[in-house]
Amino acid sequence: MAFIASSEISYYTIGFYNLENLFDTKDDPNTLDDDFTKDSERNWNEDRYHKKLRKLGQVISNLGVSEISHPPVIIGVAEVENDTVLADLIASKYLKNKNYNFIHFDSPDERGIDTALLYREDYFTVLHQEAFPLYIKGNYGERDYTRDVLYVKGELDGNIIHILVNHWPSKKSNTKENEYKRIAAASKNREIIENVLIEEPEAKIIIMGDFNDNPSSESLQKLKNTDLYNPMELLLTNEVGTLNYRGEWNLFDQILISNNFLKPYDNPLQFVESKIYNPQDLQEYTGKYKGNPFRTYVGEKYLGGYSDHFPVYEIFKVKYN
Questions:
Q1: Are 321 and 10 in contact (CB under 8 A)?
Q2: Can you list the alpha helix ranges (DSSP code H) found in 256-318?
Q3: Taking a C-beta distance cutoff of 8 angstroms, is the pair 59, 311 a contact?
Q4: Which of 118, 122, 215, 262 could disulfide-link to 233, CB 3.0 to 4.6 Å?
């Protein structure tokens, strides 16, 4: 469905995309990035790196375009190595003329992968940015060095919004073994939200990320609580999700919003709809994994695709009277 802007209403897209191992080709001695260097078994090189940047940029530039005719104003991303890959991404073919900038903090993650926020400076003004470390313990009592929670406060078309970008600890073999870590991540998000609400009781809050859990999980229910709405709960089916593991679809990539985005009156910034972006060119097109996300590698085999996740996005409207 297409939405037509007017003098009374503007439409904006906000999205999230796990970019799956967006590493440069240089070896960082402080992280476990050895698989993504020119000397690795994967033969990660400049040609492959720039091809991936170009493909990811094309996907980002297309989010929401069929509905509102212009790219997302804000998109959270996961699995980026550093500022260099983000600068190269927004300078790539399909994004270079869109006036994107980014917010990024290096996290203590052992692999060196972080979250970040891309935003179009013509539409979104950053007022505050901060990284909140997630302190959790591994199975033997040691600290599990994982991704921070990225918090950004900004102004979109005259409306203040608060955004949290997440990449929660992963599952192991799709079991509940590490569930406590994601519940801890949910608690950290709740702590940040509560502090925002103390200062701004009617704050409009958007929480996005790769949560490594489905909407029905305990961690997401804890995050949701009573003051957040998860419009993506109904998007997961036996045939549709954002990633596929051993033949089963999951919806780990989600965007939750505070309930006040749903108010039908006295509400200049409203939620419209949420979607998974999964056109055929982002899918495996033949064989056993047909329909799955078309990824860059399977193990050490280079496929030349995009990511092992589909992106998600939501459309919002601003009413001027």
A1: no
A2: none
A3: yes
A4: 215
- Token readout for 193 is 């939200």
What residues form DSSP beta bridges with 150? Answer: 131, 165
C-alpha to C-alpha distance for 5 and 2, rounded to whole angstroms: 10
Contact 296, 21 (CB under 8 A): yes
Q: Round to whole Å and give the CA distance between 127 and 18.
A: 25
Q: What's the rounded Cα separation, in Å, for the pair 305 and 264?
A: 41
Contact of 186 with 141, CB cutoff 8 Å: no
| Domains of the chain with CATH codes | 9-319 (3.60.10.10)
Please give the C-alpha separations between residue 124 and each of 35, 95, 205, 244, 277, in angstroms, as whole numbers. 36, 16, 15, 33, 23
Closest CA to 113 of 229, 35, 196, 11: 35
Is the Cα dihedral 31, 35, 40, 43 positive or negative? negative
**pLDDT tens, residue by residue, 271-315:** 999 999 999 999 999 888 899 999 999 989 999 999 999 999 999
Beta bridge partners of 12: 316
Q: Residue 174 — very low, low, confident or very high, per pLDDT cuts 50/70/90? A: low
